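Quick one, tokens below:
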């Protein structure tokens, strides 16, 4: 079984567009959306949910007002200023709380108990292009890295059960914890970038992350024809750092029309873009096999 994660140093580079296209082109695979903070792959794959489960990431402190003796120890020890006195008891600000559980340890009356908290949901769905494992983190909730790990674990289990030879992960943007969770242990990473100054800078950060974890990295330049100087700079930097540019995708308004129709650039013919993405997939697939 091979595993490919598609990432980008920044949002809006076309990462999910490429992921949806690969989902349409690949055979015998499981697809995941690991961008749990802002999942949108489902918009293009139109999934029918087969299984829905709650995601519990942490235990949240709760104050029992009947047992609270108003000693103020919890407020004194909380370094995040998440506890305050309200009328006759103490209350915890859920957004400020970091779930460290120190308040429960210092409470002399045992009034603070840790309760499991539902932080989001994860799903197994059927699509026209196979099984999709995806998730949705709650607003303001933490531990997106744990949810990404859960999504990948479920995908690997399904791949084993269904005999799938490939897992395609639509990863998060940036270089934070969710990205680390999405790339650790995969066979290849494909970074989708664009010929802008921010695109160049963020690709360099992504490359540093992959180097740190010793994961092979390849690059696709999306909208390569909007700035030839920056595209040349991307090629030069990749060459100097022994990174292969495996494809270039031109800019075309037809892509926007396909996305508005909630279809991939494979499902709707976008001319040169569709041809470029097909060639990109052939190249990526060959590198996965080898």
């Amino acid at each position: 079984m091979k595993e490919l994660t598609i990432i980008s140093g920044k949002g809006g580079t076309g990462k999910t567009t490429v992921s949806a296209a690969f989902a349409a082109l690949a055979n015998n695979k499981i697809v995941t959306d690991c961008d749990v903070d802002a999942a949108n792959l489902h918009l293009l794959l139109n999934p029918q949910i087969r299984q829905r489960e709650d995601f519990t990431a942490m235990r949240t402190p709760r104050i029992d007002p009947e047992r609270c003796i108003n000693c103020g120890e919890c407020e004194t020890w909380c370094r995040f200023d998440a506890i305050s006195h309200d009328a006759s008891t103490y209350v915890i600000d859920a957004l400020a709380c970091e779930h460290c559980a120190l308040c429960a340890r210092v409470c002399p009356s045992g009034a603070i108990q840790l309760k499991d908290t539902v932080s989001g949901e994860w799903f197994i769905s059927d699509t026209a292009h196979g099984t999709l494992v995806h998730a949705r983190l709650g607003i303001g909730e933490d531990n997106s890295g744990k949810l990404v790990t859960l999504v990948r674990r479920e995908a690997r289990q399904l791949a084993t059960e269904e005999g799938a030879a490939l897992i395609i992960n639509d990863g998060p943007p940036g270089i934070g914890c969710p990205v680390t969770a999405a790339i650790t242990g995969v066979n290849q990473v494909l970074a989708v970038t664009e010929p802008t100054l921010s695109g160049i800078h963020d690709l360099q950060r992504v490359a540093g992350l992959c180097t740190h974890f010793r994961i092979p990295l390849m690059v696709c330049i999306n909208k390569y024809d909007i700035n030839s100087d920056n595209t040349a700079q991307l090629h030069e930097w990749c060459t100097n750092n022994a990174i292969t540019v495996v494809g270039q995708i031109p800019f075309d308004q037809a892509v926007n029309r396909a996305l508005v129709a909630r279809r991939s650039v494979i499902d709707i013919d976008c001319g040169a873009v569709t041809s470029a993405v097909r060639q990109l997939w052939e190249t990526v697939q060959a590198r996965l096999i080898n």
